[in-house]
Fold these 2 entries.
Entry 1:
Amino acid sequence: MGLFDKIRAGLSRTRQSLTRELLAALGKGRLTEDVLESLEEKLLAADIGIETAQAILEGVRKRARGGDVTPDQLLEWLAEEAKGLLPELPPASTLARHGSKPYVILFVGVNGAGKTTSVAKIAHRLVAEGNKVLLAACDTFRAGAIAQLETWAERAGVEIVRHQDGSDAAAVAFDAYAAAKARGHDVLLIDTAGRLHTKDNLMEELRKLVRVLRKHDPALPHETLLVIDGNTGQNALPQFRGFGSVTDLTGLIITKLDGTAKGGALLTLSREFGAPVRWIGVGEGLDDLIPFDREAFARGLFSAG
Ligand SMILES: Nc1nc2c(ncn2[C@@H]2O[C@H](COP(=O)(O)OP(=O)(O)OP(=O)(O)O)[C@@H](O)[C@H]2O)c(=O)[nH]1
Ligand SMILES: [Mg+2]
């Protein structure tokens, strides 16, 4: 499956309910104020935020110039407007070629968001692109977390640096960086424990990890990705603020889009959070993480079928 087909398949739940509702709201194809209002309701129901929905519809209103619109035309316009709201980025999969070796990516997020799986999926992809990848098992908190990452490392065919359960996560990160440097790894991916952004002591632990890592190099980590469960929708805003107060978030990973009809929230997250979506998760397998592509995403959200 190509990138576009995968994104389309991953978004099918959101798209199918959204498209059906939008076309029902369009009725006879006249874009009256009433129809626009009910289109707005449908966008909001897909968890697209109010400002984002209004911006999209304002674009559609201008394009329609008071005339009629066919269902296909409406979807096309919606897709184009949605795409225009998303930042244009270089593809995420080239992220390891930025000249820093090892290139370090830290994964953070609340419990069960999909951090460990995303680490494995990105490792898998980077290996396929010819990179030597190392994983740091910095979730020393949850029982079984290290073993879980080891299993994924085996599947992805990469090495891992680990200490014992309950050990200091910052020390693992420090050692992993030294190991990556010494052994010539291109990329170091750091898995961390799930934590609630409201728990001060846990957030302090994360702050410490970053501080200790920076003893190697103040530019570390090169990226910090906040992993968000797609089912959280727009409610992810407090998570973004909480984690963002501890470390500069460079991007988002939205997981589990395959299981939610709230995929529209991604438009708002990307636009209003000020950190771009870099990857989206559309399944549990190693191949089910896709670099975010605004064109494919917008069309995957707004198209028939
Ligand atoms: N369907 C689907 N499931 C996913 C996706 N990403 C992760 N999962 C599942 O979500 C569950 C939690 O994933 P983990 O990667 O363990 O999450 P985590 O953030 O590391 O969890 P903690 O370490 O406990 O905080 C697992 O059952 C994954 O298989 C996705 O994109 N789609
Ligand atoms: Mg985990």
Entry 2:
Amino acid sequence: MTSTLPPVPQSLAGRIVVPDDARYERVRHCYVHRGSPAAVLLPETARETAEALRYARALGSVVSVRSGGHGISGRSTNDGGVVVDVSRLDGIRVLDRARRRIRIGAGARWGQVAQALEPHGLAIGSGDTGDVGVGGLVTAGGIGWFARLHGMTVDHVTAVELVLADGKSVRADAEREPDLLWAVRGAGGNFGVVTAVELEAYETGDVVFADLVFDARDAAALIEEWGAVLDAAPRELTSFLTFMPAGPGRPCLAHVAAVYAGEHSAAERVLAPLLRVGPPLRQRAVLAPYSGLVPVSGAPHHGQQQLGATRSGLLDHLTADAARAVAAALESGQVLMEQFRSVGGAVNDLDPAATAYAHRTQNFSLLSATVPELEQALDAHWARLAPHLNGMYLSFDTRRTPDVLCEAFPEPTLTRLRELKDRYDPENVFDRNFPLR
Ligand SMILES: Cc1cc2nc3c(=O)[nH]c(=O)nc-3n(C[C@H](O)[C@H](O)[C@H](O)COP(=O)(O)OP(=O)(O)OC[C@H]3O[C@@H](n4cnc5c(N)ncnc54)[C@H](O)[C@@H]3O)c2cc1C
């Protein structure tokens, strides 16, 4: 494939990758989707990002924004359009150790952030995967290993720098553009290209990481029991529960991963109830630095994630009825992964109006996934679960329909976001990931 694009401005020379470039194969796809963009722009500074956006807009083509390429919606690539990829803006700095203020380029990976903060005794939770990019997660939420103790990643963002649709670079913080800061903390993908964020990190030493596998033939009982353990647990405990359906020669398996970030001497007592959620097949607990839980592989993307259809829901508690509905989906063999994450705790300390991520009463997040060919069956199972859900986390869902937006941004959040969208992106340049309009 050769390129017929107009030349980029001199300042972006060497920063554009087109299909006949040897580098193209490494940058065309993201983790979930394969793509064939007409060009991928790789700016190295905020100014170059603004130029890249102007160039992309002048072409009149679709513009995708990419940081780490791990978006589950797979919309950080496209076919025939332009990708503005900020992965080279990956600096990480401690600005003020005493106040725990840090600054991160949107292109850094969260595993790199963990590694860079560790020598300072600091951390910022993100999620369970070190390869996830800063830009995509910090503009949506961030449910990580410290969720119950310290809240969502967005809760710690104090300032963002971004390039708006008109190419202007702005800084949004509590004094300047506070509305924009509010919007970016949950719906950032609709407002501009974030180039850097400032956050208030927290003090962290080694944490206890438990890794447990259970026979999940009775998945419903296991879900209910795990939920009850988390409801009663101190905030220092955050846990994720993942089910893989039965396969040839083995039953359905449940994987419980948990981080206890409190006094080490109390770890055994706090973790013990987790051992009783089902028949254990394997158990292991280690004391580890946080960075050890989120390693970075840096592997190139080639659309390798097969489970390309996902649904997200939040739940207040894991009731028997909700647990049975999830178990039935697993037993059908049509839903190939069910993954719960505990939220609650510090996540719910914030007022729902404090950030565009407004879900501050729920205690669990659920992600159900399958292959695209089974998406209809997934929807049928999801409809049965719907009465038990209370909102959703946009980053875990591949749908784009208006009803999904209403669940992601309950009123009055959605109305406020739409007003700000009119102010900051009236031409709807950033509509790829989820359409606020
Ligand atoms: C294996 C895996 C595990 C995950 N685990 C967790 C988890 O534990 N907790 C959790 O909360 N999430 C988790 N996620 C979801 C993840 O947080 C989101 O998919 C996130 O958007 C990925 O960020 P990224 O920069 O890598 O993605 P990208 O694909 O680069 O971007 C995704 C979208 O974010 C927007 N975006 C990206 N960069 C910018 C930017 N600089 N400025 C403005 N908008 C931008 C764009 O709309 C883009 O389409 C996981 C995802 C994967 C694939």
